[in-house]
Design goal:
62 strands; 63 helices; 1840 residues; alpha/beta
């Protein structure tokens, strides 16, 4: 694909639907309108080609798991789409069904409200109403001074809770030991040492912290005492005043929000477990039983008021007898002969609720259990389907009784701002809310910068909603209740609020439902989106929008087959010059819709009075009958409410129809008798299946079938009209069953429909197709357009042909002449659907011959209609009115309004300002009235003036866009993690590198802010359904971020998957190949090697008979379920009801009686035991049993001999003709080694087998056993213990059947074993024909594209079956990058996390070239990196610092690589431009002579992976660096060979295969230990910490256990572990956090309220060392802790070493799973160094000198800043100084230049590598010709 930079999206060869090879350019950064007649191809071009390609490519950047839930578009039929942006479509389709989504959540308003409320709202005590604020020592002191006289004596006390584990006497002793002397109890001071007092059980102690006086001299002392009391007392302090010599009751002051909760943002979100009402879970409604549905109020109890109990034959009629029996016994005289509505309330309550709450007990005692008890009984029986169905009739949604529909928990409702709670604000219309915000919120935001930006964003979103005409909506309006037009405009404001840029927005008729008053506002909003750097493509017919466009694309010239061509593309003012353009003719005024010369006058009216619903308040209105009436008004004025809720629903009730919705309340309606029926004619689809067609719907198909049945051929063959139906009967195609196509399920690709190979799309069998009439068969007729068919049948004689022609004439008159007779109705547009419905009304009237007057209500019939289409539709309206019908049309289009006989204008505003009749009469009378907005715009239309965009009409201010910088991503006020209010502008279209010390805030800035916000904002305007499956990224703590494009992250995820993960699965190539093999592969018998064919039923009977003869008895099983999740209780009940007795479930027989539900989250296999043939059965009986089993199993059965546990599969589908073995149909899981269907049964898909087998009996389920086995095997693979290639599959991982399948003659194993470059050539050479070509098209393209990208990033040597665990870090990183490069997107922000990790400098240049290419396409790159070459390539460098952790988080310098050198604050500039001279220590360690056998470690004949019989020698006691290009064999040599040789020498036992990896080794006997340090995570849960890894926590616990307090309390060292029940917090079990969970919401973590995040219980925290608790110690960073434990060298020395290696910012208690790969590796490196030092120190103390250790370290510089690299070099030198041999795999040239010895691997990757190309000192290597030499030479020269 070419990469053009001409500022246009180029579409070439578009053939989607009816497009005829369209070539068109869409200008970037402009507003383009696509218009044309209905069916001309507008939507096909804009939505199904342009949007589909932009959305599909961006979706490729998401994980396969997320993509399967996305509304992923089909790949369009187009030659090329170049320069495409990530695309977002704003549809007129409301697919939201969840009540959680509201206008507030959809537009992001709620996100800002919860932030504003958390900062500004005041909390009030729900009981007293007093304002609640957390107290501070200062505020307490102020209150004391205000309430007490000066000089008052005070006791300041802290509250000490009493736990069950400590008695009072022990607690007293502990407090005395800590220096406390007195407590306040029983109203007096008591000494702790006295034993003559006690306290009630559980009562807390008030320990006196200090006694002070309330005067100015002791103020500091008071504040100090209060601060200490609150700190030690859990945030609570007690003050006891003494007045007139009497101690008054203690005054309690709290430092928290009790009885409320702390006002965090989550507290004000009903979509968070923290804020959602616990009872309704944030829905605002609960599902209950509506007892009123059981009552007929006009009847008495005896006559059937409780109608559900009536009727002898009803299931629950005996309840009526129970009622009468209980009534006779009841002392209450309830009147059962009085109508329910006349009963007293207590009488109704008795009937409703009975004599007690337990229905079973009431029944047993003969008492009345009540209607409520009856339903309570039913609720206990809901496991039965019929009960659930019955209950559904009475279930209703009711307002939540707890929150009263306000959705939030009670604590949140007590916070108010300006006197209003958050739900109060949610109820306000947007226009009112904007004014309220300006009055109450904006003035409070000026002093707080963070709040200022949040309020600005809040205001801008409110402005946007008002701007697009939605000011009448409220924030709590459920999204699912919005109309299509409203949902599209709300989505538009969401896009505006998201501040995205470089995005393609495709809008579908955004003016639908919009009054002309608001059109200019909408255009203004779209222009605002455009000025932010976005591209807009709008499908539209509104004249003002077309004239306001930068580019107008006109499709046509006609509809259907007559359309699909590009008529015009260019500036709107030039389209008039194109004579064939209908659009140009109307815009130029050459053609127009004429105003009716005479309007019909209504003689009768439908008179409605007192209509009330929504904003209609007792509305009186008269609707004229027998005319074309137009109902108009601004958006939200009440039009749809009046037409649908008032007229249509009340008409249904009045005419005796079934009405599921409640009609609007009306006082009276007069005139129903004048109408026969009221019909809603909307644009909803007529059908959703492809079986119905215009011919079927209009009724002409019956006539056409009758004509063909009347032919001579048909009569001779006995064919009736039903034989010519493609929906049923014997005449349709037996293969596709009349569909004409076959569906191919493509899993994670869009399903495809291929033409039926038997009927070739004709839908019929050959017998029908051989019947001709006038040279045409019935398929030919169905392929005609309506117009062509009208000419065909119109020229014939005969009544039947005449009737067909008349009906077709109606279809043509309504503008549907372009449709084909056989076109599926589910492919019609909304306008076509609506016109077809109108045609049906005309056709029905034609058929009945009666003139029954109907009222037809049409909602926005102009949607999707061109001027020419409107002309046609108005002609249909006139015809309908002439036939006596009434048309009530809801419309804003002036062409409809001016053509109406009568207009009713509602308004004058929307929402609360609407609901009134502004004017009524003819269009001229509406103009003359001079009221409302409709008359103003209608005046110009009646005078023939064009509709143009007037910016003055868009009076909304541009305040939201005033301060948005152009061309940059502008970040303001970033405080996320350790960032210190960072402001930063990142240029778009450039490469910016973020660098700085580890922990300085780079990743927080790049990933937690730029990436998280970019993806979150893009997802916010996508499908709500899809959003729930994507990772919910946290909203960062920032003020504002603008100019942000859609983002893609390529992170440094060091996890390479388990032992089943391969290059094929990581790149997703294997997923596509599985699909391809399953759809197009040819199965072969693995035993006979012959192609597998189909078997006949008689052959199956014969095989079963043989088995029966052999075993005597069998069970025939019918496969029902294969590998699907579910509990299958319903299936078991169905089978039991059919008389079957057993199921074969997951390998075992299960009786159907008493069947227990299965684990619904596990996959299951279920077979039904159909019969048990015995040897005595006759052949006919066996044949019948086989037939029944095959029928139930859809062509398959399983034969289970008695006593066997392994059934044999047989079937009429796939079977070997030679040996008779049956096989399952090919499915994608057949080729999955992660599925039991596909994996090799010996190795279970691992390709290797371990020492131990899987133990199913020791696990609760097969899944658990499988997971345990995988974990154990992974450990064995890591340790290379007892692992060998699977003897059954030889590493292919698949079962024998899957291994034998061939595609184009190639098996899966053969293809997977090829290097990527060879596999690409093979796949590209495959040729497919006809249907196979259609199936293979997209799949082969995906495979070849991904293989190509592997080659482009230098990984063409990798094979697809290469285990991901054997990949180097560089290979893993580039695979991830390659998987992202295939989108060919532009305008995207790529956020990369150290892409050069693990790369040799030569490979680095290749990678940087790839990044340059991404930039040249028009993308922005934000790269977190320390690599010098990357920084030199960058357009801009941002240097973070000055330190790490709390000492970082600031932008220290910005500029180019050269400019950073001149900036004194730039740590990076200083490190890169002021390098010390190599070697840093002045000289290198001497390399021993080669002849000295004792001074070298030698391994000869190394042959693992690509090693070519390598002989390697490593000098002992030296620092040796192993460089080489990625894939050269470094890891294979060091980890896979040298480590094993060392372990063998130290006594470890190796497997036979491991011993073959080298020929001989020497020199390892002198080693003491081998340490391997890689970048694998330290822990995957929050429990492990750096302190536990290093070992200093154990020593700290020992130290705490040795304190006097701990010894007195009997605490041992185990007490100070947060992982044990002794010491950890009882509530959070030592995690410090509590997880809040609620159904359907993501979990939320908050600090534990009991321990406040400290992890330990209160008793443990009473023990202190040097004034600090163990929790205080865990919160220290390494530098602080080293100083704190200075007197404890065993603890402080490791901590100092960690600080010296650049990790001083990490805290001791930080969760290890939050550490980066580089941090984890350095931590492990120091840990191993400490272990070695301790062993050596202990040996020296005993007078021994130990031999050195061997350290094998893999790429330790990953993630390190240049300054930290020098600290690392110092650690490596220390290791060597202590006599250790250090081997380091490394690509950092600075570390290479510091090595004593270098072994350079290469010369290339894969098979081109595996050799030692050079070895020696850095100076010696620099003089040689090797891949690394020139880079070492450059490093040595630069440091001079």
């Amino acid at each position: 694909m070419s990469h053009c930079d001409d500022g246009r999206i180029r579409i070439r060869g578009a053939r989607e639907h009816n497009l005829q090879n369209v070539d068109v350019d869409i200008p970037l950064g402009r507003l383009t309108v696509v218009t044309g007649p209905s069916g001309s191809g507008k939507t096909s071009l804009a939505m199904h080609t342009l949007y589909a390609e932009g959305q599909r490519r961006y979706m490729e950047t998401f994980s396969p798991y997320v993509r399967q839930f996305m509304d992923r578009m089909d790949k369009p039929d187009v030659d090329a789409v170049e320069n495409i942006l990530p695309a977002i479509a704003l549809h007129q389709r409301n697919s939201v069904r969840t009540s959680r989504s509201t206008v507030g959540t959809m537009t992001g308003l709620n996100d800002y409200w919860k932030f504003v409320f958390a900062r500004l709202a005041s909390g009030f005590d729900p009981e007293t109403g007093r304002e609640i604020r957390p107290e501070t020592p200062g505020s307490i002191d102020e209150k004391l001074n205000a309430e007490l006289p000066p000089g008052t004596e005070l006791m300041i006390c802290l509250e000490v809770p009493r736990t069950e584990s400590i008695d009072l006497s022990t607690l007293k002793m502990n407090l005395v030991a800590q220096g406390y002397l007195r407590v306040f109890a029983h109203g007096e001071m008591l000494r702790l040492e006295d034993d003559d007092w006690s306290l009630p059980e559980g009562e807390s102690l008030l320990v006196i912290q200090d006694r002070v006086r309330l005067n100015e001299e002791q103020r500091e002392r008071r504040l100090e005492a209060l601060e200490t009391a609150m700190r030690l007392g859990g945030g609570v302090a007690h003050v006891v005043p003494r007045v007139d010599g009497i101690w008054l009751p203690a005054m309690k002051f709290r430092g928290d929000w009790y009885p409320l909760m702390e006002p965090r943002p989550g507290l004000f979100s009903f979509n968070s477990p923290l804020g959602a009402c616990p009872e309704c879970r944030g829905y605002g409604r609960v599902i209950t039983v509506d007892y009123n549905r059981c009552i007929k109020p006009e009847l008495s109890g005896r006559d059937g008021a409780i109608h559900i109990f009536e009727g002898e034959g009803k299931v629950f009629s005996e309840c009526k007898k129970d009622l009468m029996r209980a009534w006779r016994k009841s002392p209450r005289q309830v009147r059962l002969d009085v109508p329910w509505k006349d009963l007293k309330q207590w009488e109704r309550d008795w009937l409703m609720y009975g004599d007690g709450s337990d229905p079973d007990e009431m029944y047993e005692r003969g008492l009345w259990y009540g209607i409520a008890g009856f339903f309570k009984y039913l609720e206990s029986r809901t496991h039965k389907m019929h009960v659930r169905v019955y209950l559904s009739r009475f279930r209703v949604y009711q307002e939540c009784p707890s929150c009263h529909g306000q959705r939030l928990r009670p604590e949140a409702l007590q916070f108010k701002l300006g006197g209003k709670s958050l739900p109060d604000l949610f109820c306000m219309p947007m226009d009112e809310l904007l004014a309220w915000v300006d009055k109450h919120v904006t003035p409070c935001s000026h002093e707080d910068p963070g709040l200022k930006h949040a309020v600005a964003e809040l205001r801008s979103r409110l402005e946007y909603l008002n701007e697009v005409g939605l000011g009448y909506l409220s924030s709590d309006r459920a999204t699912r209740t919005l109309s299509g037009g409203e949902i599209e405009r709300v989505s538009l404001t969401t896009c505006l609020g998201a501040s995205l840029t470089d995005t393609l927005f495709v809008l579908d008729e955004p003016t639908v439902g919009l009054h002309p008053r608001d059109t200019s506002r909408l255009i203004s909003a779209m222009n605002r989106l455009k000025t932010r750097g976005n591209t807009l493509v709008v499908v539209e017919h509104e004249e003002a929008v077309m004239r306001a466009a930068d580019c107008l694309v006109d499709m046509g010239p006609g509809s259907g087959r007559e359309g699909g061509r590009l008529v015009y593309s260019g500036a709107p003012d030039r389209i008039a010059e194109v004579p064939e353009s209908l659009t140009g003719a109307f815009l130029a005024g050459r053609r127009s819709i004429s105003i009716p010369q005479k309007r019909r006058k209504p003689r009768k009216f439908l008179q409605i009075s007192g209509a009330t619903r929504h904003n209609l308040k007792k509305l009186d209105v008269n609707i004229p009958l027998g005319v074309f009436a137009c109902l108009t008004g601004v958006s939200g004025s009440g039009k749809s409410t009046r037409a649908h809720d008032v007229v249509y629903l009340n008409a249904l009730v009045a005419k005796g129809g079934v009405c599921e919705e409640e009609p609007a309340h009306v006082k009276s309606v007069k005139g129903w008798e004048l109408l026969d029926e009221v019909v809603m004619v909307d644009q909803s689809p007529i059908v959703r299946t492809p079986r119905s067609t215009p011919a079927v719907y209009s009724g002409v198909f019956e006539e056409i079938r009758a004509l063909f049945a009347d032919t001579e051929t048909a009569r001779a063959r006995g064919m009736k009209p039903g034989f010519f139906s493609f929906n049923s009967g014997d005449g349709r195609c037996p293969r596709c069953r009349g569909m004409g196509s076959l569906k191919g399920e493509m899993q994670f690709l869009s399903d495809i429909f291929v033409q039926c190979p038997l009927c070739h799309g004709a839908r019929y069998g050959n017998e029908v197709l051989s019947v001709y009439r006038d040279g045409r068969n019935i398929a030919d007729v169905l392929g005609m357009t309506v117009t062509a068919a009208l000419e065909y049948f119109g020229g014939e004689k005969g009544a039947r042909a005449r009737r067909i022609a008349e009906k077709l004439g109606v279809l043509r008159r309504v503008g549907l002449g372009h449709l084909t007779l056989g076109q599926p109705l589910n492919t019609l547009s909304g306008g076509e659907n609506q016109r077809l419905k109108l045609a049906k009304i005309l056709l029905d009237q034609m058929g009945s011959g009666k003139n029954n007057p109907k009222m037809l209500i049409l909602d926005e019939p102009g949607t999707g209609l061109h001027f020419a289409d409107i002309e046609v539709l108005l002609a249909v309206f006139r015809e309908l009115v002439e036939q006596g019908h009434t048309l009530l049309v809801i419309e804003h289009n002036p062409e409809f309004i001016k053509s109406a006989d009568y207009v009713i204008d509602l308004g004058p505003e929307g929402g609360a300002g609407g609901g009134h009749v502004v004017a009524a009469g003819t269009p001229e009378e509406i103009v003359a009235a001079g009221k409302g907005y409709t008359g103003k715009y209608l005046k110009d239309v009646l005078e023939g003036l064009p509709s143009v965009y007037d910016p003055q009409d868009a009076a909304m201010p541009d305040s939201a866009d005033m301060d948005i910088p152009a061309g940059v991503m502008a970040l303001r006020g970033a405080r996320h993690h350790n960032l210190k209010n960072v402001d930063l502008d990142v240029p778009r279209g450039e490469m910016t590198v973020l660098t700085g010390l580890s922990g300085s805030g780079k990743s927080s800035l790049a990933f937690d802010i730029f990436f998280a916000e970019g993806q979150r904002r893009f997802m916010d305007v996508m499908s709500p359904y899809a959003r729930q499956f994507t990772e919910q990224l946290e909203s960062p703590d920032i003020d504002r971020l603008t100019g942000l494009p859609p983002t893609v992250a390529i992170e440094q995820n060091m996890s390479r998957g388990g032992t089943k993960s391969t290059v094929g699965t990581v790149t997703e190539i294997w997923q596509f190949l599985r699909l391809l093999y399953s759809k197009l592969g040819q199965a072969y018998c693995p035993k006979c090697g012959v192609p597998v064919g189909k078997r006949s039923e008689s052959e199956v009977v014969e095989l079963v008979s043989r088995q029966l003869k052999k075993h005597g008895s069998l069970a025939l099983l019918a496969p029902l379920v294969r590998g699907r999740k579910g509990h299958y209780s319903d299936l078991a009940r169905w089978a039991e009801g059919k008389g079957y007795e057993e199921l074969w479930v997951d390998g075992g027989l299960v009786p159907l009686s008493g069947f227990q539900p299965l684990d619904r989250y596990s996959s299951h296999d279920l077979d039904l035991v159909m019969s048990r043939p015995e040897s005595s059965w006759t052949p006919d009986e066996v044949a019948q049993a086989v037939h029944a089993a095959l029928d139930m199993g859809e062509g398959f059965l399983q034969v289970l001999p008695s006593g066997s546990s392994s059934p044999e599969l047989m079937g009429v589908k796939l079977a070997c003709a030679s040996c008779g073995q049956s096989f399952p149909e090919l499915e994608p899981y057949t080729f999955s080694f992660n599925s039991p269907r596909g994996w090799c049964p010996v190795c279970r898909g691992h390709g290797v087998v371990g020492k131990r087998k899987m133990k199913e009996d020791q696990a609760q389920s097969l899944l658990e056993a499988e997971l345990k086995y995988d974990k154990e095997l992974a450990k064995q693979v890591d340790d290379e213990k007892e692992v060998k290639t699977c003897p059954a599959c030889r590493g292919v991982r698949l079962n024998e059947f899957a291994r034998a399948v061939r595609l184009q003659g190639v098996t899966p194993g053969e293809l997977a074993s090829l290097p990527a470059m060879e596999a690409a050539k093979l796949v590209e050479g495959w040729k497919f024909e006809r249907e196979e070509a259609l199936i293979a098209r997209d799949v082969v393209a995906e495979v070849t594209q991904r293989l190509g990208f592997l080659q482009r990033v230098g990984l063409g040597y990798l094979s697809l079956d290469r285990s991901a665990t054997t990949l180097s870090g560089g290979e893993t990183q580039r695979i991830r990058l390659a998987s992202q490069l295939g989108s060919h997107l532009r305008g995207v922000l790529y956020v990369l996390d150290e892409p050069t990790i693990g790369l040799h400098p030569r490979d680095n240049e290749l990678l940087l070239g790839t990044l340059d290419e991404l930039k040249r396409r028009g993308n922005t790159l934000l790269v977190v990196e320390h690599d010098e070459d990357t920084m030199r390539r960058a357009d801009r460098i941002v240097d973070m610092g000055p330190g790490a952790g709390v000492h970082g988080g600031r932008v220290m310098a910005q500029g180019t690589f050269e400019e950073l050198a001149e900036m004194p604050d730039s740590v990076t500039g200083l490190a890169l431009h002021h390098k010390p001279h190599h070697p840093y220590r002045g000289k290198r360690r001497r390399i021993p002579a080669r002849k000295d056998e004792t001074a070298w470690l030698r391994v000869e004949g190394c042959c693992l992976h690509n090693l070519k019989n390598v002989d390697v020698a490593i000098p002992k006691g030296r620092l040796t660096v192993l460089p080489g290009v990625s894939g050269a064999g470094k890891t294979s040599l060091m980890t896979g060979t040298i480590r094993l040789a060392a372990r063998q020498a130290l006594g470890d036992k190796l497997t036979r295969e491991q011993k073959k990896l080298w020929k001989s080794s020497s020199g390892f006997d002198s080693l003491r230990m081998v340490y391997g340090v890689d970048q694998s995570p330290i822990g995957k849960t929050p429990r492990p910490t750096p302190a536990t890894e290093v070992g200093c926590l154990d020593d700290s616990r020992t130290l705490f256990a040795q304190t006097a307090d701990a010894r007195r309390l009997g605490f041992d060292r185990g007490r100070f572990s947060f992982n044990t029940g002794q010491g950890n917090c009882e509530s959070c079990k030592g995690t410090g956090m509590q997880k809040l969970e609620m159904d359907f919401l993501p979990p939320c973590f908050v600090p534990c309220e009991t321990c406040r995040g400290k992890r330990y219980n209160a008793a443990t925290l009473t023990v202190r060392y040097k004034g600090k608790t163990i929790a205080d110690v865990l919160r220290m960073d390494f530098s602080e802790a080293a100083e704190f434990f200075e007197s404890q060298p065993r603890i402080s020395d490791p901590l100092k070493l960690l600080a010296e290696t650049g990790l001083g910012y990490l805290t001791l208690g930080q969760a290890s799973n939050t550490l980066s790969g580089g941090e984890a590796q350095r931590l492990k490196l120091v840990t191993e160094l400490i272990k070695g030092r301790r062993v050596s120190r202990n040996a020296l103390m005993k007078g021994k000198e130990l031999p050195g250790d061997l350290y094998l370290i893999e790429e330790p510089s990953i993630g390190l800043h240049p300054r930290d690299v020098r600290l690392l070099i110092d650690v490596l030198h220390r290791l060597a100084d202590e006599g250790n041999t250090v081997i380091v795999i490394e690509h950092n040239t600075e570390i290479m230049a510091e090595a004593d010895y270098i072994i350079d691997m290469g010369p290339g990757p894969g098979e081109e590598g595996g050799r030692i190309v050079a070895s020696g000192t850095p100076e010696q290597i620099a003089q040689k010709d090797s891949p690394t030499a020139e880079y070492i030479r450059r490093e040595l020269v630069e440091s001079e």
